[in-house]
Structure formats: structure tokens, C-alpha cells
Amino acid sequence: MSSIEIEDRLGITFCSRQAIAIESGKGCLVWDEKGSEYLDFTSGWGVTCLGHAHPLITEAITQQAQKIIQNPNSGFTYSPSRAKLLEALSGVLPDNLAKIYFANSGAEANDAAIKLARKITGKSRIVSTLASFHGRTFNTLSVSGGRDNAEKFLPALEENCFVPFGDFPALNAAIDEKTAAVILEPIQGEGGVRIPNEKYLAAVALLCKERGVLLIIDEIQTGFCRTGKFFAIEHSQVNIAPDIMTMGKGIAGGFPFAAFAVSESVDRQLGMGDHGGTFCGNPLACAVATAVVNHLQDENVADRVVVAGKLLIDGLQKIKVKYSELVGPVRGKGLLCAFELDSDQMVTKVTDAALNRGLLVTPTRNRIIRLIPPLIVTEEEIARGLELLDSALASVVPKH
Ligand SMILES: Cc1ncc(COP(=O)(O)O)c(C=O)c1O
């Protein structure tokens, strides 16, 4: 029986799948179990920032695995591996974020941020944005603006509310005396790479301060150089000082890991037993994340993302002109890019046509395809990816 048949028979399936079983990868390339090669412009949901099988990552895993994988009484004891990562991260975080804690997934980091914001403020309401995505735990689903998800699991945490992303007056109006925090992605990822007006984040940060509500910035998709800065809030002209910032995905280049960092003032209000978890700050994950964070910083990866991102966006703009009847708006910051098509059915068709030509892209709700290549993608690979995408679009528009 093939792996596809076994998975279909024994695995729970929560989404429709492409009939391809990926077995290995190197850099921006992956191979399926039959040996067919694909260019990966997904980075596994924006995670494998250094590409597949990067020697730094495999080396960090091997070396740490030979020492220790899970600490005895993890949270009760100290760990050199965790200490190294804390030092590395504190060198790249916004200055006001003084303390860091580790989690196993982005949703878990956001869940903790929401829970702790409620404890600190003694208030329960979280203001979020429409089309946002913050995770699939119950807390995070209840602040994720793609309502089609949450409505299956009613009753939701009803006090929370959603305002259009980028709409400052709406956000201002939504904050009331019950509001504990505002949660915001600097650029909406799952929402289709929505980039707000450049003054929006600074205005929101000031508003939160003035109104005494916490600002939770979710950098899970946008962090770790993905948008051409170490964190996307750094694109703002004005210094943004979140009360809590959550991180995940690229933080450990593919190893499941996440983190949240808090200001001094938030940290002062946290106490024993407020949070924890069996695997939080696991030495193996910390060793991998340290290797990734140091590499991103030492090699100035953010700067090369700016150059590569421009090539990709310019290419997408040309494709939009060529297929103007099919391709709608193109958006991107660094190597987080997206373009719109005229229907979700067309997204499926183009995604399948790209797959058949050896290119993996990320179909996204609301008629969008995202392109999120590894940050180490070369000029040649970008050119090749655009060629394959062009050919995929041509195949669904017969006249080209
Ligand atoms: C902005 C953002 N926050 C949170 C999450 C949830 O992260 P995870 O899937 O690791 O739980 C995602 C995942 O796509 C995300 O894009």
C-alpha cells in the first residue's frame, strides 16, 4: 500500500490534499517518494526559512540530541541550550521586550498571550481584526477573524470583537472598559498578505497606550526576516513597543517551536504557575532556534530578502499584466507574497497546474495564492518559479 493510501485510510483528514507524498528536501527543492522534483515556494506554511536540510540545522539537532533532548523537571531546572537562545533572541527583539518564554506552536504562544493579558488586566475582551489568523486552539480561534472556522464551534468567546484590518477609527471605537488587549498581525498572512497603511501600526500602538489596553503583536508568520526586516513591526517609521509579541514558524527553521516575549511591566505582573508546559523551552528545539536566529543575523538575511522579494514581486506584476483577465491584485513584503485570482476554484486549478509543472504554492482562502519561498531562494530559483507559474496560468487560460 502506498503512503497516500495508508494516510487516507488511517489518518484523520481535515483538509483536501494534493496526491503527492514528499519524502526529502534540500534547499528550495523537495522530492516525492517517486523521485519527482518540486520547487518549494511554500516553505511549509512559511516555516523552513533556511530551506530544507540546512547543514546548520541538521548539525544543531545532531549535536544537541547527543547531549540531552528533554531536561529533567524542565521548567524547574536551568538549561544551557535555553540560555543560549534567550541571549540570541534578546539581541534581535524590539528593545522594550525584556523577558521571553517558549512554546511549541504559534497557536500555543498566542493562547498564552491572551490568557496572560486577561490575568494582568483583570479584563476579558480581546479586540482583533477581520480576516486575521492567530491559531486553532479555542482561545486563538475566538480571536481569528475568519469566522467560518469559529462558527463551527459555537458558542465562541463572545465578548471578543473584530474590526476591519487597517481601519483605525473602527479599532478606536471597539476598545471599551472591558477590553484587555488588541491582537494584531503587522501584515495579515493567512488573510492574504494584507499590508496596512504605514502609519497604522504606530497609531494602534499609541492608542493602546492611551486607552490602557495591552498590545499583542503576532509576528508568527512575519517574523524572522520573512518580510525583509527581522520583525515586520520594524518597517514602521515610529518605534513600536508591543506589550507582548508572539513568534513561531521560522524561529526554528522547521523544528516545531514558538515563543512569546513581554515587556518589563508585563513580566512584573506575571506570577508562579501562570503558565508552563511539558516541552516549553525543550533543549533540542532551543539549540535549533539558536542556530537559525544567529545565522539570520550574522548573514544579514533580511537584506537579501529585500532584494529577492523585489525580484519576485516584479515578476508577479509582469504576470498580472500578461494574464490581466485572470490575475487580480499582487501584494508582498519581502518574501511574503500573494496574488488574487477570480475564484477559489481557479486557485485550485492554478495550484494543481503548478504542482504538475514542479512548483509548490500555497492556496489561500478568498481567491488567493501565496508564494512564501525559503529566505535562501536564489535569483535563478525565483526566475524558475515565475516561469513555472506563468506556464501554469497559461494552461488554465487556453489562449496564451
Ligand atoms: C499570524 C499567525 N499566527 C498564528 C498562527 C498559528 O501558528 P501554528 O500553526 O504554529 O499554531 C499562524 C499560522 O499560520 C499565523 O500565520
Major β-sheet, in short?
7 strands, mixed
Q: Give the amount of beta strand, in percent.
A: 15-25%
Q: Portion of residues in helices?
A: 25-40%
CATH fold name of the domain at 64-298, please? Aspartate Aminotransferase, domain 2
Unreliable parts: none
- For the record, the CATH architecture of the domain at 64-298 stands as 3-Layer(aba) Sandwich
Order of helices and strands: HEEEHHHEHEHHEHEHEEEHHHEEHEEEH
Mean pLDDT: 95
- What global shape is seen? globular
Strand adjacency order, main sheet:
4-10-9-8-7-5-6
| Structural class category | alpha/beta
Rg on CA atoms, Å: 21 Å
The CATH C-level class name of the domain at 64-298: Alpha Beta
Straight-line N-to-C gap: 40 Å
**What's the helix count?**
14
- What would you give as the CATH superfamily of the domain at 64-298? Type I PLP-dependent aspartate aminotransferase-like (Major domain)
Number of strands: 15
The ligands bound in this entry are: pyridoxal-5'-phosphate
